[in-house]
Design goal:
It is a single chain. The chain is α/β, with parallel strands linked by helices and 326 residues long. Strand 2, helix 2 and strand 3 form a beta-alpha-beta unit. Helix 1 crosses helix 8, helix 3 packs across helix 5 and helix 7 packs parallel to helix 9. The two termini are 32 Å apart.
């Protein structure tokens, strides 16, 4: 039985990855920070919370990470933890840099000290491309991040490459383009949209306030993307891979698809609000997953409109059943 340690396990990707690895026969350790309250709602929804072995783990605490890795002895570590909300990174750039950037360096050091044979998956992001230098973006495209979050992720990305080349540590960075699901947090625009549609249908909400409707993203289904993470660590040689659909859609298209799925005209409910505009915006992200297709045998299957409808239906069920929202 293989052992995996997952940071950020209570998030969208962590929950789906845990479910995937458990079904593969892994022993899964969930790394979470000490907190007065635990939020394991996503894992509860998948019915796997009690199958996880829990450990306290903080990307700001190298000594603590050393103890946990020595105790758990994982063959694979999946680092999904970060301050991952782009908007918040402008308000808290120092904290974002410390956790999302330096936290990965601490993790790499812990692996190097305890057992350099441990395989590491690092969650990189399409936000590193930012002000895009080429369309579509692949593993060779130059980076130009446009947020403190993107900058911190790029630092972590290059530190992984440096430890790979300097210490022969097997690590792979997944440059994942936007991936959504019913387990997406409410602070992200996609879930904000689908939850609003559900509340409008129920009669609990009258309008939806959004920022830039013109930004374009490559949106896929998170449940499919975690399989790509797993496949990266099963290869003979470590490398970095773009996971994407190869299609781009604007926020307005996402809004239209969400409202149209319930036979509603989005223009009757949506208003733009300057409070939700970012100081600098990423206008267009479009990934090229050719390398992942060819090397990993990975390709997305769920289409854009089907993904949006899936999220709306899930939120409709939640609001109708008065379930506590993620």
């Amino acid at each position: 039985m293989k052992t995996a340690l997952i940071t950020g396990i209570t998030g969208q990707d962590g929950a789906y990855l845990s479910d995937f690895l458990l079904k593969k026969g892994y022993k899964v350790y969930g790394a979470e920070r000490r907190a007065s309250t635990r939020n394991r709602t996503r894992l509860d929804r998948l019915g796997i919370t009690n199958e996880i072995e829990w450990v306290n783990f903080d990307l700001a605490d190298l000594a603590g990470m050393l103890r946990v890795i020595q105790q758990v002895k994982p063959e694979e570590v999946y680092n999904l933890a970060a301050q991952s909300f782009v908007g918040l990174s402008f308000d808290q750039p120092i904290m974002t840099g410390d956790i999302t950037g330096l936290g990965v360096t601490r993790l790499l050091e812990a692996i190097r000290i305890v057992n350099p044979k441990i395989k590491l998956y690092q969650a990189s992001t399409s936000e590193m491309y930012g002000k895009v230098q080429a369309v579509p973006q692949n593993e060779e495209t130059d980076f130009y991040p446009r947020s403190p979050y993107g900058v911190a992720k790029l630092y972590a990305h290059w530190m992984c490459i440096n430890y790979r080349e300097s210490y022969d540590i097997f690590n792979c960075s997944g440059i994942l383009f936007n991936h959504e699901s019913p387990l997406r947090g409410k602070e992200f625009v996609t879930r904000k949209i689908t939850l609003a549609v559900a509340n409008i249908v129920k009669g609990d909400q009258k309008e939806l306030l959004l920022g830039n409707l013109d930004a374009k993203r490559d949106w896929g289904y998170a449940k499919e993307y975690v399989e790509g993470m797993y496949l990266m660590l099963q290869q003979d040689k470590p490398d970095d891979y773009v996971l994407a659909t190869g299609e781009t859609h604007s926020v307005e298209e996402f809004v239209d698809a969400a409202f149209s799925s319930q036979k509603l005209n989005w223009k009757d409910y949506v208003k733009q609000d300057p409070r939700f505009m970012r100081p600098s915006e990423v206008d267009l992200l479009l990934g090229d997953p050719t390398k992942a297709n060819n090397v990993l045998g990975w390709s997305p299957k769920v289409k854009f409109k089907d993904l949006v409808a899936l999220m709306v239906e899930s939120d409709l069920k939640m609001v109708r059943d008065n379930v506590i929202n993620i």
